[in-house]
Each structure stands twice: as structure tokens, then as C-alpha cells.
Amino acid sequence: MLRISNNVTLADREIHIEQVRAQGPGGQNVNKVASAVHLRFDIHRSTLPTFYKERLLTLADQRITRDGVIVIKAQKHRTLERNREDALARLKALIKSAAVEQKKRRPTRPSRSARRRRLDNKTRRGQTKALRGRVKL
């Protein structure tokens, strides 16, 4: 059972974990041991509250397919158990990040004195650069 928050949990039957062979160098074990993990989680068929489902489906994340399935590949560690834990932690982090409300952006404008200071600095800088020219004799 994966605990997302105090009142939201996911049953093990909702998360499909499959062993696959990891990519990259691995020495003698690379062709024998399936230590990487593919985690699949179907958002539509899950028992998540509708709030979480809607927020997850609106995320622009490449790990979420068009069908609403989250696919996470974990192959960072050498053992299957640690890769499984890593994949579950990443799924939990993704679901939690969907629940966070984004602060609404309030457009701001610089004050009149800030604009005046900026223009004064530009003028001063331009005068300094003008003095760098060739000296007439």
C-alpha cells in the first residue's frame, strides 16, 4: 500500500510493476539480471479522489500517456528492490505535486522612482562610454 497523504492511499493492485533489463554498462550481469523497473499506474481506473485525477490529467508531464497511464522507469540502482522503492517514491512525488496549488501571478509595475533611477543610470553609463572615445589633439 502506498500512502500519499493522511487520507489518500493506493492499493498494491492498482500499481503494476514489471521487471526489465536496465540499459547501459553493467559488466558480467548486464545480460542476465533484470534489475530495472517499469511502473504503470492507470489514473482513470484508480481509487484516487477526482481532484487528484483531474489535476494529474492536466499536467504537462512526459511520463503521463494520452490514455492517462503514468509510466515510470527506474534503473538508477543496481538492485531490483531499490529501483522499486525509487519508482514508488517518484510516483508519490508526482501525485503530491499535482495537488499543490499554484500561486496566482499578480502582474506588477516598477514605481515611478525606480523608472527614473533606471533611466538616470542609463544616461550616466552612456556618458561614461562616450568619454572613452579617441582624444582629439
Report on the architecture of this protein.
- The chain is an alpha+beta fold and 137 residues long.
- The protein has one domain: Double Stranded RNA Binding Domain, CATH 3.30.160.
- It has helices at 50-58, 80-99, 112-130; strands at residues 2-3, 9-10, 15-20, 36-42, 69-74.
- It has a three-stranded antiparallel sheet, with helices on one face.
- Helix 1 (50-58) packs across helix 2.
What tags apply to this protein structure?
137 residues; alpha+beta; Double Stranded RNA Binding Domain; three-stranded antiparallel β-sheet; 5 strands; 35% helix; elongated
CATH architecture: 2-Layer Sandwich
**Can you count the beta strands?**
5
Question: What does the average pLDDT come to?
Answer: 87
Strand content: 15-25%
Which word captures the global form? elongated
Q: Which secondary-structure class do the elements indicate?
A: alpha+beta
Report the CATH C-level class.
Answer: Alpha Beta
Poorly predicted sequence stretches spanning 5 or more consecutive residues: none
Strand order of the largest sheet: 3-4-5
Topology (elements, then pairings):
Elements: E1 2-3, E2 9-10, E3 15-20, E4 36-42, H1 50-58, E5 69-74, H2 80-99, H3 112-130
Antiparallel strand pairs: 1-2, 3-4, 4-5
Helix pairs in contact: 1-2
